[in-house]
Amino acid sequence: MADFLPYGRQSVTEEDIEAVVEVLRGDWLTTGPAVTRFEADLAGHTGGTPAVAVTSGTAALHVAYAAAGVGPGDEVVAGPLTFVATASTAALHGATVTFADVEPDTGNLDPAAARAAMTRRTRVLAAVDYAGHPAELDRLRAIAHGADALLLEDAAHSIGGSWQGRPVGSLADLTTFSFFPTKNLTTAEGGAVVTPDEGLLARARRFRNHGLVRDRAEQRFPDEGGWHQEVHEFGLNYRLPDVLCALGSSQLRRIPSFKRRRAEIHARYDAGLADVPAVRTPVTRDGADPAWHLYPLRVLDGRRGKLFDHLRGVGIGVQVNYIPAYWHPVFADLGYRRGMCPNAERYYAEQLSLPLFPDLTDADVDRVIDEVRTFLGT
């Protein structure tokens, strides 16, 4: 059997390693100059929107909801075709999560469903850029602001992409990124929150550092001493260390080449599977310039599970992304029921992520295509 082919993996070069080693030989391991540099470098890919580096994509969501002031009595409207963290981090703040259905072709939050789900208690509308294809952020922003809510873009899949000519990270009130190894760039573990709003930015920075207030002008007891710091609102330690930020800055220099290679692989899958009647290949909406994180093939006629087993059996590491978030028992125990979002459930029943990462060769892609076609009899 050929070597096992993962569905995603990091791309680390000697330059990345040298960047990390340089920090290890210096004076700072955490909360030092590499953090500031990484945040500035990241803003170069978000239209200049300031960034707050944190320890994971999940932490980024938790921080973003905290910055938005989400708490008990509030609602967060979100699409369910996502990793559970998009919803669970809002629930951890005490909010009620209302799931709105997705578009049947992209898997992204449907603006009409989002509008119907909004109430006077909605504080945040959370849209996921599924697979790296940006959501309809202009329409969703208008819906959110029309209800006096904030738009949060969960861009864990889409750094480097754009919608209607504007880069991901510049369109929402709050945008969150993930830098997990399978994502479009990695810091090993890591994430970030970006926002153009100075108040939201300050709240995000404070929450990721225990809620500490060090500015004497803002302290309630500023005369305590030069060592004094206070907590006015609870926060957590979500600080991303310098060693990982150094890796992130190095990786950011290759975002254009990562995006280009992912697009080439995506197009090769499209061409190799376009004439297979038993599958449906991904769509790209007008105005979208995706930064493809996944290749979400749709397998029709109830054959997804058997194709998954076949490909795994021949050493091809396909994945399914994702079960609808409200199917998780933690949400079922809160009263959420299957059938709430039929488009998302239908998408999940057919979805299969084929391998997609920059170091994938054309021969690897062709191997996957051949195995899919062989199994489906084409």
From TrEMBL:
Coiled coil: none annotated. The active site is at residue 183. Pfam families: DegT_DnrJ_EryC1. It comes from the Bacteria. Its cofactor is pyridoxal 5'-phosphate. SUPFAM superfamilies: PLP-dependent transferases. GO terms for biological process: antibiotic biosynthetic process; polysaccharide biosynthetic process. The modification N6-(pyridoxal phosphate)lysine is found at residue 183. Keywords: Antibiotic biosynthesis, Pyridoxal phosphate. CDD domains: AHBA_syn. Belongs to the DegT/DnrJ/EryC1 family. This is dTDP-4-amino-4,6-dideoxygalactose transaminase. It comes from Amycolatopsis cihanbeyliensis.
